[in-house]
Amino acid sequence: MAVLNSNIPPGPLAEKWEQYKFNTKLINPANKRKYKVIVVGAGLAGASAAATLAELGYEVHNFVFHDSPRRAHSVAAQGGINAAKNYPNDGDSVYRLFYDTIKGGDFRSREANVYRLAEVSLNIIDQCVAQGVPFAREYGGFLDNRSFGGAQVSRTFYARGQTGQQLLIGAYSALNKMIGAHAVKSYTHAEMLDLVVVNGHAKGIIVRHLETGAITRHNADAIVLATGGYGNVYNLSTLARNSNATAIWRAYKRGACFANPCYTQIHPTCIPVSGDYQSKLTLMSESLRNDGRVWVPKKKEDCKKRPRDIPEADRDYYLERMYAAFGNLAPRDVSSRAAKQVCDEGRGIGPSGLGVYLDFADAIQRLGEGKVRERYGNLFAMYHEITNEDAYHTPMRIYPAVHYTMGGLWVDYNLMSNLPGLFVLGEANFSDHGANRLGASALMQGLADGYFVIPATISAYLASQNPGQRPPVEHDAFRAAEADVQAIITKLMNSKGKHTPTSFHRRLGKIMWDHCGMARTKAGLEAGIKHIIALRDEYWREVNVLGAANDWNQALELANRVADYLELGELMCRDALHREESCGAHFREEYQYTTADPEVQNGLVNVGDVKRRDDVFAYVAGWEYPGTTEKAPVLNKEPLVYEAAHMSTRSYKV
Amino acid sequence: MKIKLKVWRQKNRDTPGQFKTYDSPELNEHMSFLEMLDVINEDLANKGEEPIAFDHDCREGICGTCSCVINGKPHGPNRGVATCQTYMRSFKDGDTIVVEPWRAKAFPIIKDLVVDRTAFDRIQHAGGYISVRTGAAPDANAILVPKKDADLAMDAAQCIGCGACVAACKNASAMLFVAAKVSHLGLLPQGQPEREKRVLAMVKQMDEEGFGACTATGSCQAVCPKEISIAFIARMNHDYGKALLKGDPHAAPGQAG
Predict the structure, then answer these.
(1) CATH code 1.20.58.100 region(s) in chain A
(2) Closest CA of chain A from B43, distance in Å
(3) Distance between CA atoms of B43 and B49, rounded to whole angstroms?
(4) Is the CB of A126 less than 8 angstroms away from the CB of B139?
(5) pLDDT band (50, 70, 90) for residue B248
């Protein structure tokens, strides 16, 4: 069994990070250059880590499967990035950001990590501004802020509707500076297909070059994975099509524990599915809920009417009705489930009946169309391109879609996995968002991990390794890992079945959405596991990959990734099945508040809100690979202990 | 609806390519252009023919990966969108749609519709940044930026690095791309210390990559998915001229076009 020691430093919460930095081992500048660090991924976490580690003097090698580091999926984040700057003087503080994040995550994240995240949020904004990120400004030249879901203060910094791209360009420019200075070696079109573990330590990776198919071995003193989330296991999601789980999944199969895989965020405001051919779902930024009002008709028979023909009295602004204190800015999990609930009641709108309105009529009346256009113009344009509808004159149609995975590889306070030498940053790890992530917090976490946390924590591990002593790529472990990668590719190429990897991906996605989606049950999850195992079996008999392995081959790329999804999907269902409680985005129908509960009678929560079971499930589930997919994975637990925040019932009503 | 797809097929960098024409299966007007390619690829694979390679990723117009010349126009018939934001409702039942990769000496073809755009990265390695060490930044509100400067910098910063500007230009010039990058940083107070060095270095690298000169036809701004203005080219020429006149003994002069 793996040992999951969180390595939280001692001392009061607010002093832990400061104390940690003082007590941690440093490496002298002359020795730093003898250590080689591999960073996989170049999104916000990866690019910021690679650039900063190179600035410190380490030899950094950065790998991305994209043609350029600037295309990592962080680029697509729209709404903003949180920081406890309290520039609007509306009562924000590091402690409030910490508490909102802990509460938003439904008391399933690690307190010390979250506090550190809130602390360094201040430095992130400073760093980004200095790099030239063109955040929105007020007329006096000062930075502008807006509010976001799950918070009652305005702490979100933004750059029109493309904050992610602007922050990524900032991190990418920092990376470019170090590539230009030959301090980072950049590998593009280079996909990591395995982790190499030598004597229990992560010491290398196996990479396939997408253009030539060449398989190469790369060694290092430490490996940093910043490879993003695994939401594409659902096939349809707001993720880029090429975002995938292969790097973290193959690390799992080499011994890294996978934490809380079932925690999947379903984002409430996405454009509804329009047909079977659909390749992805497009998110409409949560920032729209600042000014848009969410509603459905009160009566089923009104659903097919034009929205303008439904009088005010016949509309149900259900978020405002159900969650008075937060209204349309209720957190994502709460808003998504409420949308599902009204659609399940038959009050959904649009061709499929799986949609709700997001209406800007009031905002346009209050602010004028010009102001609304200035705030959200690009989002309205995007909506128009996709749906051919004009949201200035008719409400948007939205529905929840898979957006983010809070689970990921288990890491300790150092962001190191249970495999020494393997560090995991950003969405790829599990640490900061608990069972539900608040809006504008993913960008914050990615940059916190890359710019400020890993540069401080990696030295503690490297100081324990002799400089210049990393194992050579001729080591048996490298040879064996390369052979394993080759074996999978050969098996896929030789399968010569009847169905494309895409068709299997679509089928898996449907199983996941139906059985491990917004609402889960014991019976549904058990059935899901059976379906996935059967589909996986069929996959290896029936998949058809055309083209050659030593050539640009997008079908082979996908086939590799789908093979991993077919295993990861099962683990997600197993985790959801074992967690017999509801928390944050994980909603088990068996565990919800009913009229019999005092919390409902006291007006703290609504009937149907998630019901945690802190006495049994206040822990991180770290699943360990048993060496074969035939056996059940091993469950390791890290208990969650709250020293500062009080574990309370999460209420957004009062 | 159904269409005929006349598409460029090329095995790899070293093998000459040619057009091939395929009949699509039944499509629908709500599909994106890339979803149409997915459907045709699925059909090709089921018939045992290798699918068409094309670049794509976010499919919402922000990553800059997709790159098709559609009926002679980079990113297709509509203004202000990338290929992935082009929908089949822009075409008619029975149309023949011609699809080519970006064509420019500096963007060699890798396969079918996929080209190598690493030249753009190298231009940015040369100077597309503000040199600030992590941790060295002052408080964010210590640097005041007038709203109009911030907004104009943002207009330039919207560039998604797709390369449509190069593909549209008869000279395969990268001036709009480089001008957007230079202007984004050059308009901000943080970008001033390196403003001259930056423009000299980036233009020099641009020239070395084999991009052509600018003859101000404006085709770049017409196809830019973010509708970036060629006024930024004028701004870059201004910066470049000023930097040249001031002289930097360490920078070899290039051509601003």
Answers:
(1) 491-639
(2) 10
(3) 9
(4) yes
(5) low
Residues of A in contact with B46 (CB under 8 A): 500
Q: Which of A562, A512, A528 is nearest to A542 (CA)?
A: A562
Parallel/antiparallel/unpaired status of strands A396-405 and A222-225: unpaired
Low-confidence ranges of chain A (pLDDT < 70): none
Question: What does the alpha-carbon distance between residue A525 and residue A506 come to, in Å, rounded to a whole number?
Answer: 18
pLDDT bracket for residue B257 (50, 70, 90): very low
Does domain B4-111 correspond to CATH entry 3.10.20.30?
yes
Chain A residues whose beta carbon lies within 8 Å of the beta carbon of residue B38: 277, 279, 502
Interchain CB distance below 8 Å, A66 and B65 = yes
CATH of segment(s) B118-246: 1.10.1060.10
Sheet holding A264-270, edge to edge: A264-270, A396-405, A356-359, A293-297, A315-316
pLDDT of residue A42: 98
Cα atoms in the 13 Å half-sphere on the side-chain side of B214: 24
Question: Count of CB contacts below 8 A, A vs B?
Answer: 216
Instruction: Please identify, in words, the CATH class of the domain defined by A267-402.
Output: alpha beta
Architecture of domain A491-639: Up-down Bundle (1.20)
What pTM, to 2 d.p., does this model score?
0.96
H or E stretch including B7?
Answer: strand B4-9
pLDDT recorded at residue A148: 83
Residue of B nearest to A140 (CA): B146
The full set of domain ranges for chain B reads 4-111, 118-246
Inspect the interface and report whether the beta carbons of A188 and B135 lie closer than 8 Å: no
At B250, is the pLDDT very low, low, confident or very high (cuts 50, 70, 90)?
Answer: low
B189 Cβ contact list (under 8 Å, min separation 6): B143, B144, B145
